[in-house]
Amino acid sequence: MAYGIECFTKKKSDILKINMKTVAIYIHPAKPEALEYASMAIKILDELGAEVFGADTLCEELRQSEFPFLKQCSENDFEKKADVVLSFGGDGTMLFASKLMMDTGIPIMGFNVGKLGFLAEYPVIKLKESLQSLMDGNYRIVERSILECTFNGKSHNAINDFVMEKKNTSRMITIRAFSNNNHVADYRADGLIITTPTGSTAYSLSCGGPIITPGTPVVCLTPISPHTLTLRPLVIPDTAEISLTVESPTGESNFVIDGQDVFVVNDGDKVIIKKSDSKVKLIKPLDSSYYDLLREKFLWASHYGMRVGK
């Protein structure tokens, strides 16, 4: 059975109901509000009859006497225990949890205690209602594509984006980009973002990149403060293999993965980027679409001056 794509209809084929009786919880360790709402979720899930596992960092923060039914489990063992993983934090927490569950087939449900919340889109003010919907099977599961990069003999994955950027200099760097061995451009800029559709509403958007609906089979190359103003964001098929080399005044540049992991790339090193065979599965509300999310998060005035149905 196929998983639903992040789409804009409410077809039955977009829904895959799984018996979510075993739940693992992952939190942002530096956010007290994440711990607060995770604690509330544990009690609600127990009342709903779920078996609940907590990551080590979560269990260490809780008084075990208040949660005798909570079972401690290493994050790396979630795959063996859980039907679903709940993430409490922001989109960064959601990215980390998603990478933990990549290729396991276990979906992630993100509760937003951060700011914008595009991946972690469930609001904590509707915590009990959302968990009841999860237990009742009222949700969608969608797949998100991932990018894979290779350099210095190692591979890395990104759900949002890869970023090549300057390091320890105020001067611009030059990034030579190829798509399937075809020369695209020499980007003289502060950096270059290679983003998935998921990441199009993150760093790329702030640099003038387009919003790309999830499920669209493309990647986008978005320059960061380019010297030549005609170097605009470029959308290419996700079947293309992208190769990058960089020249920097310092001889080194930073290569950032999903805003979390940073590696040093030396001048002349080649970085190869392509679509990964891996996927990430996310749980989404049954009664909303990606367009609903855009209107909510970006405050698009869709109903200003008009009434629905008129």
Under the CATH scheme, which class of the largest domain? Answer: Mainly Beta
**CATH architecture classification name of the largest domain:** Sandwich
Total of helices? 7
Structural class: alpha/beta
Provide the helix percentage: 10-25%
What is the count of structural domains?
Answer: 2
**Quaternary organisation of the protein chains:** single chain
- How much of the polypeptide forms β-strand, as a percent range? 35-45%
Terminus-to-terminus distance: 39 Å
How would you write the strand order of the largest sheet? 3-2-1-4-5-6
In sequence order, what are the helices and strands, one letter per element?
Answer: EHEHEHEHEEHEEEEEEHEEEEEEH
- Low-pLDDT stretches are 1-16
Total beta strand runs: 18
- Say what the CATH topology of the largest domain is: Tumour Suppressor Smad4
Q: Superfamily at the CATH H level of the largest domain?
A: Probable inorganic polyphosphate/atp-NAD kinase, domain 2
The major beta sheet can be summarized as: 6 strands, parallel
Shape: elongated
Provide the descriptors you would attach to this structure in a database record.
six-stranded parallel beta sheet; elongated; Rossmann fold; 310 residues; disordered N terminus; single chain; 7 helices
